[in-house]
Specification:
The protein has one helix spanning 4-18, and strands at residues 24-29, 34-35, 46-47, 54-62, 78-82, 94-97, 100-106, 109-110, 118-124. It is mainly β. It has a single domain (4-124), classed as Bacteriophage SPP1 head-tail adaptor protein (Thrombin, subunit H, Beta Barrel). The termini are far apart.
Length: 127
């Protein structure tokens, strides 16, 4: 019996085989950890080295005009569907794909039963 997560991976494999341009391999970039800072250190701390990017398969789509509300979803935002990776993605991470480096506006973690099966994100590029 296969899990939902395995089924999502199988769908990504099938789409990639039928339409190679639909699925791309991008990366998830975690923010650099900050050392120091805090109440007794007004400098704000100093950033450490950035962690290595995590490879991820994803599908990136433009968002149709009917979903743009001008507040939560803006013109130019992208829907990014990512299959599960070796880390839990957070809203402070960045998505790097063929559209550039994107910030995550809405994480869209799909996790029935607590196990992440995919991320259906709203992401924003630089404006």
């Amino acid at each position: 019996m296969s899990t939902i997560r395995q089924k999502v991976t199988a769908v990504f494999d099938k789409i990639a085989a039928q339409q190679p341009d639909a699925i791309q391999t991008g990366t998830i970039q975690r923010p650099a950890p900050v050392a120091g800072g805090g109440p007794s250190d007004a400098s704000g701390g100093s950033p450490g080295p950035a962690p290595a990017p995590i490879p991820a398969r994803m599908a990136v789509f433009e968002i149709g005009p009917g979903r743009i509300d001008g507040t939560n979803i803006l013109a130019g935002d992208l829907q990014v569907i990512i299959e599960p990776v070796s880390i839990e993605i957070t809203a402070s991470d960045k998505v790097v794909c063929d559209r550039g480096t994107l910030t995550i506006e809405k994480l869209g973690r799909v996790a029935p039963g607590g196990e992440t099966v995919l991320y259906d994100m709203i992401c924003r590029g630089s404006r």
